[in-house]
Amino acid sequence: MVRYPVLVVLAALVTGCSSTGGGADAPAPNASNSGIVPPSLTASAAAQGQGQGQKLSFGQSAEVSFRPNAKRATTLRLAVTVARTGRVSDLAAYALDDQAKASTPYYVRVDVANDGSGDVGGSPVPLWATTTAGAVVGASSFAQPFAKCRSTPLPQPFARGASLHTCLLFLVPQGATLVALTNRTAAGDVAVTWTGQVEPPRPQKK
Hints:
- By secondary structure, the chain is mainly β.
- It has a single domain (4-19, 28-195), classed as Immunoglobulin-like.
- It contains 3 helices and 13 strands, in the order H-E-E-H-E-E-E-E-H-E-E-E-E-E-E-E.
- Strands 3-13-12-8-9 form a 5-stranded mixed sheet, with no helix packed on it. It has a 4-stranded antiparallel sheet with strand order 4-5-7-11, with no helix packed on it. A two-stranded antiparallel ribbon has the order 1-6.
- The termini are far apart.
- Keywords: Signal.
């Protein structure tokens, strides 16, 4: 089941800085969701995708075809290295609606390299979280880097030979937990699934 209302737009969940925020180090007041699916993958295709694809463990890499739109395409090498549970209090500087306050953030570390010939800079990293409820959740991206997890689209340019180690933020709805990260093909099938030990939240500083 693909649950689109979960994270349609992060701005609808994170609407701005709270009155307690402010200053140069305050999180950015504007945020947007990178999307449940990339532009070339329609909602209906995602819902119909039944392929099992390749199953990997955290730390293993795979080459995947990536076509963010009809004019750009390349081959990316992806590896999910770490998944860690966060706390919704990490977003305390933002005004959250009730749905967001009840969610659980997950910070997912990812290695991305462009092994193909196309430049896909500015596109979201093509990964989605799957949950114990069977939902597919898209990564959230911020207008400015979030201190705990940048969760931004690929830098521009991101051409052949470019690589980076980045972090993606997934807000999983109340009552569910993250169980895997998946990449999907343009046809909607699951191309690669990564699973592994999801680490607990870091100890809070006193």
